[in-house]
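Assess this today:

___
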Amino acid sequence: MNPRSACLACLERDPVALLEAALWIAAEHDDSVVPARVMAEVQALQQDVSAGLPMLPLSELAQPLLRRLNALGFQQDEYHPLRPQAALLDKVMQRRRGQPLALALLSLELARGLSIPLEGVNFPGHFLLRVPGADHLLDPCGGRRLYPADCRELLGRQFGPQLALSADHLLTASPLQMLQRLSRNLRQLHASHDDHLGALKDAERVLQLGPGTAADYMARATLYQHLECPQAERFDLEHALLLSDDPIQRLRLTERLSHLPPASQSVH
């Protein structure tokens, strides 16, 4: 079974093997990655984390778990420009540095193993966590509590004051959504370091894991442009045009399509 198939198979399990799926994504980029070996390291980490947790009800242990992870050195990767290793889970385990989503995936695995209730929240720009039913969110990078005012401030710092906080920003993330977001992060990171083939793997996975947006098809079209694959580029630009409801974006897509060679005709 190849890494992509193994990743998808993890999503068919009950419960979903989310962290292992993320490790198979890493294995797709580096064939020296052995997910079972990294999962054994996570098991050892779980014991270290558990030993440092206070004697509290399970429903109150999510924040102590995140603080314990932080004390063990797991922190947000602040390197600029950010590199793909910030989102590749095997590298996050080695370096103890990662993007918020990567740290959240590790935290969710540890919480599951320790029966601590915790779920992912698809907050834009900075993935967050939540104890089901709690009146606050948790930052996976250290465990800080975020109430609505904090969420508005975080949103404003990343997108400006014009974007108002809405209920859609606080929705629970499914395993598929988390892996799709991880794949988008990796697509961006690989592309920003001119690894177009690596980014193409991520772009394909994004569209395999769930419905793609116009931006997803445009991102893959740009990769095909770099790789000089005009017919594949045309296919994705046409899909983006169908999905886009932005008049300016549609105009730009139409113009870009006009500069591509015509679609090859089938011979009958």
User: Anything to note?
Assistant: The mean pLDDT is 96. Residues 3-170 form one domain.
